[in-house]
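Lab notebook, bench 4. Still working through the backlog of constructs that have no structural model yet. Next entry is a single chain of 68 residues. Request: give me the structure tokens for it.
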Amino acid sequence: MTIEELGQKIKGRRSTLSISQRQLADYTGLSVVTLSQIESGKANPSFETLNEIFHFLSLEFLVIPYIR
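Model written out:
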């Protein structure tokens, strides 16, 4: 998954839950501008930031190993 696809997933989930960018930004301590950049794939958030966003949106990470 690319950073752009991840941003689209975050934005889609936020929209589905009728959560504003301001609400999510306030919860995570991010600015609305930074959150917008994450959703548009223009920012590379830390794992901690993604964890905060995912927690608020009731999402979870799933790491699946693959064989080369």
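Notes after review: Helices lie at 3-16, 21-28, 32-39, 47-56. The chain has one domain: 3-56. Flag for follow-up if needed.
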